[in-house]
Amino acid sequence: MGVVSPPGGAFDSVLNRMYQREGLDTLQAHLEDAYGFKVAKMSALEVGVFRIDRSDKGRPLVARVLPAARPYSAAEADLAALRYLAAIGFPAERPFGQDALTRHRGQAVLVTEFVKAAAKIDRPSFPVVRLGAMVGRLHGLEDERIGATG
User: Fold this and answer.
1) Class of domain 13-116
2) What pTM was computed for the model?
């Protein structure tokens, strides 16, 4: 018996929902209208994610255009999580102002402050150990939040 593959159409449909973004040609104007600054440069970082350099020399930003298939409420939850992490001082991206979440062409757009990579000399010798400690801290936050005990 051979391996049964899903119909190409269904798989293609999933890929399109994951990777397709609408209105990228008007994203710059949307950001300028929503936030009141002029965009000097937009650089694609990955699918739907852009570094935004501002003409006013303000700190660079990151704009994430989320897939239209993803509910807006999920983007609101992402923003709430980022705000919570900021409130407890956890190292994570910080939302850009109070209106960090907007809608553009039926898609949520989440804007955060750009995190510059640390200079090589400032990076930990064993980053996986630091990453593990951070993941452990996040798991500890879950326990504190729900009142669970070891």
Assistant:
1) alpha beta
2) 0.77
